[in-house]
Design goal:
261 residues; alpha+beta; Serine Threonine Protein Phosphatase 5, Tetratricopeptide repeat; SH3 type barrels; 3 domains; 9 helices
């Protein structure tokens, strides 16, 4: 309860006022109504207003964030996690959504199942997901031009030394460093772009069985828990094939997962 009170104070004093200022367009009135209802602790009415605002602007990260906070207050923590991940997919730099996701995950206590963490997933968690695409674009461009300038400058000094029959200058280590940095940042940029093509989702029910095939009464091979992030492979009717990274692939009901990217 103490943590929940701290969460409410954090949301009411920092997140909600900031998000209100960010709203423009036709959903602004609904957003304002939802905010007022949230402040009045009428979470059912707030949910209705934020949902209607989201219908008008499905990828609005701010509305997604406030709807997530409302779902959290209504006890739907896994759904709140999914909505916050969707908000961050829409706007990776929305700090309020990032702070909300960290808190809700800490309250949810996502259960783990046996799996082998893949190298790509580790790199994604540490270097790809937290960093905006624009940051890697800028870093790649800066290191490219800086490396190019140092190499051209070295070439000019070397040519001059040859003309004067003087000792050739040593190859600048900074050029090596900048070139290596450019390669690394460009590689991370490529991974960032690749990652954006992967369809991911969040389990939004408390628990769901991962089955060997679509359809009722199929063999269950694993239990997935609310808040887990999965990779979507294909759909078939009311079923979707997903992979829990580092673990197994199987089928679950569509209504058990919220596609976040």
């Amino acid at each position: 309860m103490a943590n929940l009170k701290k969460l409410s104070v954090f949301f009411l004093s920092l997140i909600l006022p900031a998000l209100c200022l960010a709203q423009t367009g036709t959903s602004a009135e609904l957003f304002q109504q939802g905010t007022q209802s949230y402040l009045a602790k009428d979470y059912a009415k707030a949910h209705e207003s934020f949902s209607r605002a989201l219908d008008q602007d499905p990828n609005n990260a701010v509305v997604l964030t406030n709807l997530a906070l409302t779902e959290f207050q209504l006890g739907k923590k896994p759904l709140a996690v999914g909505l916050l991940r969707k908000a961050l997919a829409s706007d990776p730099e929305l700090s309020t959504a990032e702070a909300g996701l960290k808190f809700v995950l800490s309250q949810l206590g996502v259960k783990e199942v046996p799996r082998q963490i893949q190298t790509y997933e580790s790199v994604r968690a540490k270097l790809i997901q937290p960093v905006p695409l624009s940051a890697y674009l800028i870093l790649s461009a800066l290191t490219f031009f800086a490396a190019g300038w140092t190499l051209i400058s070295y070439g000019g000094r070397r040519k001059k030394a040859m003309q004067e029959e003087a000792a050739a200058p040593s190859f600048p280590l900074v050029s090596t460093f900048l070139t290596l940095s450019f390669v690394i940042f460009t590689g991370l940029l490529a991974l960032k772009v690749y990652d954006s093509t992967i369809l991911r989702g969040t389990i939004i029910t408390e628990k769901v069985s991962l089955q060997t095939a679509p359809g009722d009464n199929q063999v269950a091979i694993l239990e997935l828990f609310g808040g887990m992030e999965v990779v979507a492979r294909q759909t078939q009717g009311d079923w979707v094939q997903v992979t829990y990274p580092g673990s197994l692939t199987g089928w679950i009901k569509k209504d058990a997962v919220l596609m976040t990217r």
